[in-house]
């Protein structure tokens, strides 16, 4: 993907409420069915979102990828500014930041709701929109076809599937560990957000 590291981008896509949702779903009574529906939503949303950003970016002349003054680079610098502001906000508000209240409703989710969550948590999450904008811009600037985004999409779904894979491979250990992981992420959501912003800034500037 012309310099973009697929795995860190996928991690950035799923860090925060996204992976917390996946962890919550594997602690529900119908863990496998609900988790598979969630993964389907993530796959569709990531594919559609990336296709839209790539299509929109392809409509414009973004210039040479090696030119620091090109339109594509300017877009990426604006995204860096957004991420820096988000990281500072999370640091300043770290004592009061709480996970979204809707996460608490997922324990009773059925496959239909899990599918909807998978769609919306990608398409409406600002951090994921920024990632997909960056991927789409990078692909368009390199005159790449959409097929080159498939490794990014696949890696995003794989990261989302890790809690379910852990459950299937290590059933009893997963049942004991997942609630503790979920609680830690609930109390350290501000730190996770800052780390995600930092990783993404490094990816854009690299």
Walk me through this protein's architecture.
This protein is an all-alpha fold. It has one domain (6-205). The chain is built from nine helices and no strands. The protein has helices at 6-14, 17-25, 31-58, 71-92, 111-123, 126-141, 150-169, 171-187, 189-205. The radius of gyration is 17 Å and the shape is globular. The two termini are 13 Å apart.
- Proportion in β-strands: under 5%
* Residues in helices, as a percent range: over 70%
First-last Cα distance: 13 Å
Class by SSE composition: mainly alpha
Total number of beta strands: 0
Features:
single chain, 206 residues, mainly alpha, 73% helix
In short:
The protein has 206 residues and is an all-alpha fold. The protein has helices at residues 6-14, 17-25, 31-58, 71-92, 111-123, 126-141, 150-169, 171-187, 189-205.
List the helices and strands and how they pair.
Elements: H1 6-14, H2 17-25, H3 31-58, H4 71-92, H5 111-123, H6 126-141, H7 150-169, H8 171-187, H9 189-205
Helix pairs in contact: 1-7, 1-9, 2-5, 2-7, 3-5, 3-6, 3-7, 4-6, 4-9, 7-8
């Amino acid at each position: 993907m012309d310099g973009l590291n697929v795995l860190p981008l996928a991690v950035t896509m799923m860090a925060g409420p996204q992976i917390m949702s996946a962890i919550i779903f594997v602690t529900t009574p119908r863990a496998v069915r609900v988790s598979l529906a969630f993964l389907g939503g993530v796959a569709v949303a990531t594919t559609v979102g990336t296709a839209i950003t790539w299509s929109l970016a392809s409509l414009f002349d973004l210039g040479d990828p090696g030119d620091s003054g090109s339109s594509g680079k300017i877009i990426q610098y604006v995204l860096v500014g957004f991420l820096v502001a988000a990281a500072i906000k999370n640091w300043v508000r770290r004592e009061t930041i709480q996970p979204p209240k809707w996460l608490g409703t997922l324990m009773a989710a059925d496959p239909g709701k899990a599918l909807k969550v998978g769609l919306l948590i990608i398409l409406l999450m600002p951090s994921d929109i920024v990632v997909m904008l960056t991927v789409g811009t990078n692909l368009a600037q390199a005159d790449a076809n959409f097929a080159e985004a498939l490794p990014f999409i696949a890696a995003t779904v794989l990261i989302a599937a890790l809690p379910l894979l852990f459950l299937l491979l290590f059933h009893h250990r997963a049942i004991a560990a997942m609630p503790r992981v979920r609680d830690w992420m609930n109390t350290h959501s501000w730190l996770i957000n800052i780390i995600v912003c930092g990783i993404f800034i490094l990816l854009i500037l690299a």
